[in-house]
Structures are given as C-alpha cells and as structure tokens.
Amino acid sequence: MSAATHCPYCALQCAMFVEAGPEGAPATRPAAFPTNRGGLCRKGWTAAELLASPQRLTRPLVRAERTAEFTETDWDGALDRVAAKLAGLRAEHGPDAVAVFGSGGLTNEKSYLLGKFARLALGTSQIDYNGRFCMSSAAAAGTRAFGIDRGLPFPLPDLASAEVVLLAGANPAETMPPMMGHLAAPRLIVVDPRSTATAEQAVAGGGLHLAPRPGTDAALALGLLHAARAQHLLDEEYIAARTSGFEAAWAHAAGFWPERAEQVTGVAAHRIREAARLLGTARGAYVLTGRGSEQHATGTETASAWINLALALGLPGREGSGYGCITGQGNGQGGREHGQKADQLPGYRRIDDAAARGHVAGVWGVDPAELPGPGRSAFELLDALGTDAGPRALLVLGSNPAVSAPDAGRVRNRLSALDLLVVCDFVMSETAAMADVVLPVAQWAEEAGTMTNLEGRLLRRRAVLEPPEGVRTDLEVLSALARRLGQPAGRFPADPDAVLAELGRASAGGGADYAGVTPERLEAGEELFWPVADARATTPRMFLEGFAHPDGRARFAAVGYRGAAEGVDADFPLLATTGRVMGHYQSGAQTRRIAELAGAEPEAFVEVHPDTGARVGLGEGDWARVVSRRGATLARVRHRAEARTDTVFVPFHFGGDQAANNLTNPALDPFSRMPEFKVSAVRLEKADPADPAEPVPPGAAAAGG
Q1: Across-strand partners of 351?
Q2: How far apart are CA 528 and CA 543, in angstroms?
Q3: Rounded to two decimals, what is the model's pTM?
Q4: CATH of domain 574-704
Q5: Main-chain dihedrals φ then ψ at residue 439, nearest 5 degrees
Q6: Is 2-52 a domain of CATH 2.60.40.1260?
Q7: CA 20 to 30 Å from 326, out of 77, 156, 420, 643?
Q8: CA–CA distance from 154 to each of 71, 321, 540 (Å)?
Q9: Domain boundaries, the chain
Q10: CA distance to 132, 329, 404, 477, 480, per residue, from 392 (Å)
C-alpha cells in the first residue's frame, strides 16, 4: 500500500506518501512538491502515528450531565439526541440560540457545507471559526490594500530568486521547516522579539535580526518607511502609477524618524536605516508577515503598515518582488473563503451584500431573505455562550477552543454554561472532554477533499485508508443532522466531489472563484491557483496587470502606531508573548499524542533571560507560575541569554494548568476582531508543579481590557 496525499498540519501542505511501515502500521515518507521539494518536518514524518493510535475515538459518546462519565452509543441515537436538542432550543429561543464553531484545518468542502448548514439547517447567524485567531488581521489589511486577500499572491518558489526577504513576526525555521529551502539564497531581515531559529539563520547568512519590544511592530514599519524615503529609496514612479493614498500614509510615517522609532521599539536607529537600505536597493525583495505582527488588537493597522512599506518600495504586483502573508493552518486560506466566517458567504462574498446573497441563495434554492445576516466574531461568539443573549448550544468541528482561545479560563466557563455542547473530533481534546456529545470523525488520510495552501494553490487530499469501523466523516455528520432537522435529502451531500461542484457554482464570480476547479484537473496534476474561473483558468501570480480595486490601484492605509492594549506595572512587570515550537501544532490535541513529539517537548516552558529569572529566584529547569491579569500557567524555566530582559515566551500547545492562553488578552482589533494573543503583562513566581496554576483574584481580570 502506497498512496500520495498531503500533510495534515500547516499551510505548506507538503506532499507525502502514506504506506505500510515496518510493523504494518501506516507510515509517511515525503513526495516531491513545489512547497516542500521532497522534504518533511518532524511533524510530517510522524503524522501517520495518530491514524492507528489507541486514543482514537471510534464510537459516539454521550452523557446525561457534565459531571457524569461518557457512555458509548450508536450513531442514530447520538444524532437523534443532538438534532432534537438543537430543534428544541431553536423553537424555544430562536435560531441564534444555536451556534457553530469551525476550523482553518477543515477541507474546502467541509468549510463550505458547514457555513451552509449553519445558515439553512439551523438558520443561525452564529457561526465563526478559529481562523479568526490566525489570519483575520492580515486578511483585512490585504483586502483594504489590494481589493482581495490571498496570503501569498505568488508561488512560494518565487522567493528563492529574491535578494532580500523581510519576515515580520514569522519563524518558519521552526513552524514550517521545509519553507526555509526557499529562503536559503535571499538575505533575510527577521523582525521578532525573540532570537528564533529563523533569526539565527538570518544573521548567519549576512542578514539582520531586528528585535522590537512586543507590540511595537507598527512603529518599526513606520520607521523603516521613513528611513527608506530619507535615503531616496522609494519607487516614486510606481507610487504615482499604481497606488493611491501615499501622502495620507506618509503623514503618519513622517513622525517616525529612526531615532524616534528606536525609542519606541528598542531597535537601534542605524539598524533601521540598514534594513531599509537592504530592502530598497535589492533587485528583488519581498515583505512577508506572520502571526507575530498580526495577533494584536492593532493587528490590521500593523499589517497595513508593512504593506505600506512594500508599496512604497514598489514591490507588490511585480514578478520577483511582492508582499505576502504566511498562512498558518492547513486550510487557513480556503477556510476563510467559503462561508464559515460570521460575515461571509462562499467565494469571499460579504453576507451583507444583496447581490452576493442573491447569487448564493439561488445556488442553494432558497429565498435570499431566508439567509441570516452577520453574526458574532469568534471570541465574541465564545464569550456569549450560555448567557441570556447568547447561544445555548454549540457544535464544534476541528477546533479546540478550550485551549486555543484567548483568556481560555473565561472561555471554558462559557462552554460549561451551555445547554448542549457537541464536538466532532477523532481524539478526546480538552474541548471534547467538556462536551455532552462527542462524535468520532475521520482523519486526514481517511477522507478525500481539497485544500488551499498558503500560495492559493488548490490541491487534492486523497483518502488512502478506510476509517476505523464506527467512524464517519464530518460531511456525513452534517448531512445526517441536516436531514433530521428537516432539510431535503439532497441539499447536504456527503460526497466531497458533489460538494466541490456545488462550491464551484456558489463561488463563481466571487473574489475567490473556484468555478473551474474539478477533481479531474487536480488528479491530472494541473497547478490551480485561485481565481479559477473556468476550465482553463489558473492564476499563479496576482496583480501583475492591476490590483483588485475598480481603478486597478493599490491603496495605502493611513495608519499610525498605537501601543498594546495593556501595559506593564509593578504587579505585572514583564511582557509575555506566545507562539509555536517545531514539535507541536496548534493546541497540541494531535501532536501531544504522538510519542516522538511528546517525548521531545513533553511540557510547557517559559523562555526567560537569566537575569530576569534570577530576580525572582528562578533557575534553569525550575517550575514557574506565569501570572497575568486574567489567569496563570505553569511552565518549566528555560534560560536564554539572547532573550529580551523585559519579555518571556510561552508556547501555546499545552492544556490545563500549562495552557498559555490562560494568560492572553481578548482585547479585539476593531477591524478584524482578532484578539491580542502576542502581548500580555505578566509576572513570574516560583511554583510547585503539584499545585494548580491558581487564577489571579477576579477583580484583577477587569484590568486586562
């Protein structure tokens, strides 16, 4: 047995073969593909282990009350119970009493059918997904600047021909190791408060590491723009011919000469000038942003500041140069295009646009008036659960918000207040463990579907194994529930190819047009980058002839610098930032169950400068309690001489008392509704791991914003 498919993890979607290993259990090996070029990271090499894990869920689980143990039941009993409870809550409290929470890891077909299920089968506006926590700020900034958002509007291999690449808030050497092969030739400028593996590679290759104080990336971007103009590096001809709004944007950058930017960011003025010179004199250059710049209450403005820099240098819409956002989740791009966001319909259409509603309603065979309007964004939805004005039931697919949401203790309280929590998963995640009903679903190698990777490239995930007996696909679950809720039998197909065909019709004419995407084209090996409007179309490089605004021009955004939503004080004197490590992925629900990965990174840690640790008596290997205004987490101390003395780092892959998101601030970006994951004011305390990470007094929580 050997079959080609794609990795279940990040947005590189590395190609791999799944085959029988030495003991007969499934194993993976890399396959040639443009993103991974025949390589895999540690997660990809071990991805098959979970397919045969004894921790797989294979029977529906139910319980009469949250304090009771789960018992196994049959599918009909479980689905009947869920449908009856959903219908009862809708009848008593209205359609918005039920809600749906999706994922950037779902296939395009699942993302599409989930949005349709929420709006037709449930009639609710209350649907959003965990991609709101990942890509929403860059998406909002990209749409404002270019008229549409595609993470990388060019193929990933284009980066290899550049002279300089700036990475703002991205650490692909640890989070996407195969991507680094595309970054071996350019000189790298890495913007990150931490001295990461990517920053170290940049310095070793003759590039730069700029380490701003957390939350000050926008000030650094403004300082770089100022330095570039002062050195006469702006592309004035490009600005005049292909953009609008430069003067309004410059009015903000004009006040951020490098010395002032140094005062705000801590990055030396001469290094700001050097970075601007490297970018501005390169024959080919790219500016790429990641979560470090975007997961802030000012994330959209910060992403816009980086886009302004790229536009002023004349990079976007030219071969060999550009701006892009590095998508994180496996289908983070496709997952935000086809309807599982609160304000969205398929094809990147807005749900409050009358023409969009009419088009999609026509495909679905309903009156546009039947479609609900926009609902709450992800955190606002989670925070409303179980309240008088909020949803009383929640269906979760592919997400673990008990660990991944900001102010996670608060979110767990809201999940506990629900009348009904239903989780579709293949392992007992922390969120599933809180549920009333857990439905066992297939994994990546057990079902077919399409994904859209970080380049906007459509690819085919193949079903290479049969799921275990008793397991169903997410599409089968949605189809069965829809029928029980009174929907016509054919309205919610369970066959992924049938769903893809309908998705193509629903997205036709939209920004993310998949009308020409077919399984046959993908199986034949065609390279399809959206928009794919017909049977011949593909768009590997966007914006070469013009941007997606009606006048064809890109828009500068008039953005300045605003600080983080909360600051340090005597009680919380340090800044905590969060992120990924190489061995784990997202909330860790999958990777913490893989022996090799769990063995390499078995517990949470806090990365601390030795002097910072010494001030509170914390030595290497000690257990620390990291405390914010919202909660606390336990973590093992790791001293790092390269760390900033005012900043600590905690990975977010662990649950319970070791959950980094017990700390994080749910203050929201006003445009994207992205929470501020990357800056939390904290203190360090010595801890005994036998003691729980007790929350701070309730009165302190209000200070977090």
Answers
A1: none
A2: 17
A3: 0.95
A4: 2.40.40.20
A5: -110, 120
A6: no
A7: 643
A8: 50, 9, 6
A9: 2-52, 61-133+331-494, 136-326, 574-704
A10: 21, 28, 21, 20, 21
